[in-house]
Amino acid sequence: MIKDQNLYKQRAIEQWTKHPIGAHVAKHPEGSKEFFNEIADFRYKIECPWLRPTFKFEQYKDKRVLEVGVGDGIDHLELAKAGAILTGIDITPKSIELTKQNLELHGYKSTLFVADAEILPFEDSIFDAVYSFGVLHHVPNIQKAINEIYRVLKPGGKAVVSLYHKDSLFFWLFVFLYDFILKGKFLKMSLKDRISAIEKGGEETKPLVSCSPEKR
């Protein structure tokens, strides 16, 4: 079990309040339609061109879908466009605010809550699917969050979860070998802090990023 769980949760809130996910690629004012569209274009055309064809948002038409960790609402908007009956949660109030703005600017809506992934504020067995992209590796007790996802899914429901991979080429070649070792970051910070810096602004806020097995 990770100690100081509340500290890590506060760091997560601080991280995505100061540095909304993807905002560094946008040139237009935060909260504008153009702002969200720039982030979406970068996400789906440059950073993750495989995301839409892999996750097939259209399969969730008329399904009750919960997104755990909505961020700026970029994927949430795709689920809305696909016709999902949407609910979303995020521990960061600003993320809920931005997601609401993003959907409203594009003519969609969702039921949104500020909530903790480890304590989902929903009854058992009510969602057809739970979607969570790049979120649970920031949660102190990942197993507890997984148990909550399982609890709120209907029997036969689908959980779609994307996480950082501890043995990815990006981690071992760029983060560990090139940046941490060859560039000498190991002289200035721990590997744990270097992994936090994967996130924009992470060197400042030090959010939890789990990239390796850990007893919980």
Furnish the topology, listing elements before pairings:
Elements: H1 5-18, H2 33-47, H3 51-55, E1 64-68, H4 74-81, E2 85-90, H5 93-105, E3 111-114, E4 127-133, H6 142-152, E5 153-162, H7 169-182, H8 191-196, H9 202-205
Describe this structure in words.
The protein is of the alpha/beta class and 216 residues long. The chain has two domains: 158 residues, 3-Layer(aba) Sandwich (Rossmann fold); 37 residues, no CATH class. 42% of the residues lie in helices and 15% in strands. Strands 3-2-1-4-5 form a five-stranded parallel sheet. It is globular, with a radius of gyration of 17 Å. The N and C termini lie close together (4 Å). The C terminus is likely disordered.
- For the residues shown, what is the average pLDDT? 89
Instruction: Report Rg.
Output: 17 Å
Q: In the CATH hierarchy, what is the class of the largest domain?
A: Alpha Beta
- Name the CATH superfamily classification of the largest domain: Vaccinia Virus protein VP39
Approximately how much beta-strand content do the residues carry? 5-15%
Order of helices and strands: HHHEHEHEEHEHHH
Count of the separate structural domains: 2
Largest beta-sheet details: 5 strands, parallel
